[in-house]
Amino acid sequence: MSELQELETDLLAKIDSAENESALEGLRVGALGKKGVISERMKTLGKMSPEERKEMGPVLNGLKTRIGDAIETKKQTLEAAALNARLASEKVDVTLPIRPEPKGKIHPVSQVTEEIVAIFSAMGFDVAEGPDIEDDFHNFTALNFPADHPAREMHDTFFFEPREDGTRQMLRTHTSPVQIRTMKSQKPPIRIVIPGRTYRCDSDQTHTPMFHQVEGLVIDKSAHMGHLKGTLEAFVKTFFEIEEVKTRFRPHFFPFTEPSAEMDIGYEHVGKEIRFGQGADWMEILGCGMVHPNVLVNCGLDPDEYQGFAWGMGVDRLAMLKYGIPDLRDFFAADARWLEHYGFDPVDQPNLATGLSR
Ligand code: DAH
């Protein structure tokens, strides 16, 4: 075997057994790099006689090409092997079952908030949120509360100590300030629901100082009272998961809507149970109305161009009604046994396709 053939056999064997890309790169430099064995031989071509060069040129070039090709082929093999190893080690086995009994329960307030958001999301509403600590403008003034409105009194509102300029921040008394924040920052059409915590100085079986609301707001050029009624009637049917719900809208007063109404749903007592949707008794579940022109003006919207409707409902109250929970104060007592009884499976996310509650 000639010396060159020996070199070729040796190199090909080493390339073939290279274990990884860096070993292969070492071989490439050793053979074809600037000072590599083949490169060194190529340099000798210049010193040969023309006859010799004619013979050795093709021999050496052939060697160079074959070694180069062998390295390239091996490189691809190694890359493919590395990729396969990575795919195998990073594989997620989606057939693995989840733990049979997840620990912990979803609180009824979280569950019902998710249910309400799921229903309005399916109707095309977005979710908006705002701060729990508000100023007078967003919580009252922009919502058209007159300066001497009783809701501004210490009696209802948790105020902070006055600041140096005399203004007082407060814990928001409702989610309505987020209407203002949204109308000031977003161009109509607006369709949002606003879930959040709210605060009032009040405590008994059906009132806690911190409670939860979901606010709704629709602003466009043609939204009217019929849309408001249709939206809320569709909501209660889906929420209570019953075919027919008797509802009525009673005239009411809110500074930020005109006309304003409260929505009641029919119910009756059957033995110890309260049954919704039918019967001769009425229960108030939310306040609503057409957004007052002053509120639109306070948010920089032209009331001759835009109009809309809004509503606000108590999440805790709806949770008590839907799931038969008797005392609101228990919601916030952090009693694990209570949560075990009234809580929801964390794996069952409320959605309209598989059912809200299971
Ligand atoms: N903010 C009211 C409250 O807390 C509820 C409410 C009533 C909200 C009517 C509205 C509305 O958006 O239109 O009592």
Polypeptide structure, described:
It is a single chain. 39% of the residues lie in helices and 20% in strands. The N and C termini lie far apart (82 Å). It is of the alpha+beta class. The longest helix has 40 residues, at 50-89. It has helices spanning 3-17, 21-32, 37-44, 50-89, 108-122, 136-139, 177-185, 225-240, 293-298, 315-323, 336-342, and strands at residues 126-127, 133-134, 170-171, 190-199, 210-220, 247-254, 257-270, 273-276, 281-291, 307-314. The protein has 11 helices and 10 strands. 3,4-dihydroxyphenylalanine binds at residues 174, 176, 215, 254, 257, 287-289, 310-312. Mg(2+) binds at residue 258. It is found in: Cytoplasm. InterPro entries: aa-tRNA-synth_II (IPR006195), aa-tRNA-synth_II/BPL/LPL (IPR045864), Phe-tRNA-synth_IIc_asu (IPR004529), Phe-tRNA_ligase_II_N (IPR004188), Phe_tRNA_ligase_alpha1_bac (IPR022911), Phenylalanyl-tRNA_Synthase (IPR002319), tRNA-bd_arm (IPR010978). Its cofactor is Mg(2+).
* Overall tally of structural domains: 2
- Largest sheet properties: 8 strands, mixed
- Output the helix-strand order: HHHHHEEHEHEEHEEEEHEHH
- Helical percent range? 25-40%
Straight-line distance between termini: 82 Å
The tally of strands reads 10
State the CATH superfamily name of the largest domain: Bira Bifunctional Protein, Domain 2
How big is the Rg? Answer: 37 Å
- Any ligands, ions or cofactors bound here, and which? 3,4-dihydroxyphenylalanine
**C-alpha geometry:** elongated
CATH class placement of the largest domain: Alpha Beta
Annotated CATH topology of the largest domain: BirA Bifunctional Protein, domain 2
